[in-house]
Amino acid sequence: MNELGYVKQLNTNRTGMVYKFIKNGDVFIHTMIVGDLLCHLGFTPKDIVGKTLHDFYPITYANIKHKYYLQAWEGNYVQYETEINGIIQVASLRPVFNNKEIVEVVGSCINITEKIALQTSVSKKNNLASSNSGTKNLMLKERHFVIFVPLNEIMFIERLGRKSIIHTMHKEYATNDSLAKLYEQLDVHFTFCHRSYIINVDFLEIIEQRGQCFLGHFKNNKTARISKNMVNELKDYKTY
Fold this sequence. Notes:
By secondary structure, the protein is α+β, with helices and mostly antiparallel strands. The strands form four sheets. The protein has a five-stranded antiparallel sheet, sandwiched between helices. Strands 10-9-8-12-11 form a five-stranded antiparallel sheet. The protein contains eight helices and 15 strands. A hairpin with a 2-residue loop joins strand 13 and strand 14 (213-217). The longest helix is centred in the N-terminal third of the chain and has 15 residues, at 59-73. It has helices spanning 3-12, 36-40, 45-48, 53-56, 59-73, 113-127, 179-183, 231-239, and strands at residues 17-24, 27-34, 78-84, 87-98, 101-111, 137-142, 145-150, 154-160, 163-168, 172-175, 190-194, 197-200, 206-210, 213-217, 223-226. The two termini are 42 Å apart.
């Protein structure tokens, strides 16, 4: 398979991000990058192409990535896991040879944040002591008020623009807090099912496929988007 075909195959398989880089002296220059993960990390192709790791990443993280780039440029197939901005990703680096010399490296990254979050929730669920009792609350600080929302009433939390919307059976609450910050207060019944949704799995009633998309149905005709790679995980969680 030629290298263009390899990159297209990665893209077709919905890899989170695909990119290429070359070595120029002691630094690595990115020559191409595509994929949804790029946007999730807060970048555009213009931020990456023609630049080195230290041009757009914090120095500590750039140094870590540089070490793996060096290994790939030495002719090794490299796979590693990193985390930045709350996003956990598995990356692979594949050297490209021409007349036994490395001319570039093709890299790919997959966002595994949601999968790790669900695995953590399942693990906590399995270890939850049966003696644990009492209703916990999600605390929201809004201007002059502190609002307490019982966790066992929350169906799901949705990110809309700059607001997070907490959907309960009878009411909705809006807050400026990010989903990641809210998730820290939640218990084992909650998990990320999509980058814009946290759901209480106990309230999930139906998973519906609409074309290439999946929707989770809750009471009161409310729905939440579900990532394709989370469908089987949620099935396992619900039937455990």
